[in-house]
Amino acid sequence: MTRLFNDPAAFADEALEGFAAAHRGWVRPVTGGVVRAAGTPAGQVAVVVGGGSGHYPAFSGLVGRGLAHGAAVGNVFASPSAQQIRSVARSAHGGAGVLLMYGNYAGDVLHFGQAAERLAGDGIEARTFAVTDDISSAAPEETAKRRGIAGDLPVFKAAAAAAEEGLPLDEVLRVAEHANARTRSFGIAFSGCTLPGADHPLFTVPEARMAVGLGIHGEPGIGEESLPTADEAARLMVGALLKELPEGVDTPDGQRAAVILNGLGSVKYEELFVVYRKVAALLGDAGVDIVDPEVGELVTSFDMAGVSLTLTWLDDRLEQLWRAPADTPAYRKGAPLAQEPATEAAAPYVEEIDDSRVPDATEESRGSAAHVLAALNAVADIVDTHAGELGRIDAVAGDGDHGIGMQRGTTAALEAAVRAHDLGAGAGTVLVHAGDAWADKAGGTSGALWGTILRSLGTRLGDQDAPTAEAVAQGVSDASDAVRRLGGAEVGDKTMVDVLVPFADTLAEAAGEGLPLTEAWQRAAVTAEKAAAATADLLPRKGRARPHAEKSLGTPDAGAHSLALITRAIHGVLPDHPLDQH
Question: Model's pTM, two decimal places?
Answer without folding.
Answer: 0.84
